[in-house]
Design goal:
The chain is an alpha+beta fold. The chain has one domain. Helix content is 39%, strand content 20%. Strands 1, 2, 3, 4 and 5 form a five-stranded antiparallel beta sheet that branches. Strand 2 and strand 3 form a beta hairpin.
């Protein structure tokens, strides 16, 4: 009889410890792990948006058409952004994407970056070998679209109201995520249009 009474007391004490242990598991392990998975989802979505937008901009005939294609691609992926709790980094911005044209000389040297049609040069300023510059100097330059996605990824469970966790990225405040992708310009003759 004494042995069964002793066995019952041990079972009762382990059952009483299960509740606090479960609370500690949820608060300190499971919820931060879900926030981490939410952040990873946001990083993957920023990468997807930038890569897909750059690939859609590459075959466009003009720079203006490439900008419209990028915005259309971002709008088609809006559900991915909502799932990952992403908002554009710039305050008041409707889009987290920007596009630039990178002009790199074939012979080497630093490339120049341009973000508006009409400003993109036909040739690098140091190129003196071509007296009559064609519409686009594809003999001496490489033209690429550079698409940058910049978003703030909010935590799934926001601990912004807790004193010790409010300044911890991905737990108490959003994390800025920036990803850049490039694609070759297939129609460089239309960049200034």
């Amino acid at each position: 009889m004494a042995r069964s009474l002793l066995r019952d007391r041990r079972t009762g004490s382990s059952l009483a410890e299960f509740g606090p242990a479960l609370c500690i598991f949820f608060i300190f392990i499971l919820i931060p792990l879900l926030d981490l998975l939410s952040f990873v989802s946001g990083v993957g979505t920023a990468m997807l948006v930038a890569n897909w937008s750059a690939r859609q901009a590459g075959p466009c005939n003009t720079f203006t058409e490439a900008q419209a294609s990028i915005l259309q691609t971002e709008n088609s992926l809006v559900n991915f952004r909502k799932f990952a709790l992403m908002k554009p980094t710039a305050p008041g911005a409707t889009s987290g994407l920007s596009v630039r044209v990178l002009v790199t000389p074939v012979v080497g040297g630093a490339g120049e970056s341009f973000d508006s049609p009409g400003a993109i040069p036909n040739t690098p300023p140091t190129d003196q070998t071509v007296p009559n510059v064609p519409a686009k100097n594809t003999m001496n330059c490489v033209y690429q679209y550079v698409v940058t996605s910049a978003y703030d990824v909010s935590p799934l469970f926001n601990f912004g109201g807790m004193p010790f966790l409010q300044d911890v990225p991905a737990l108490g405040k959003p994390v800025p995520v920036v990803f850049t992708s490039t694609a070759s310009v297939e129609h460089p003759e239309g960049l200034n249009q």
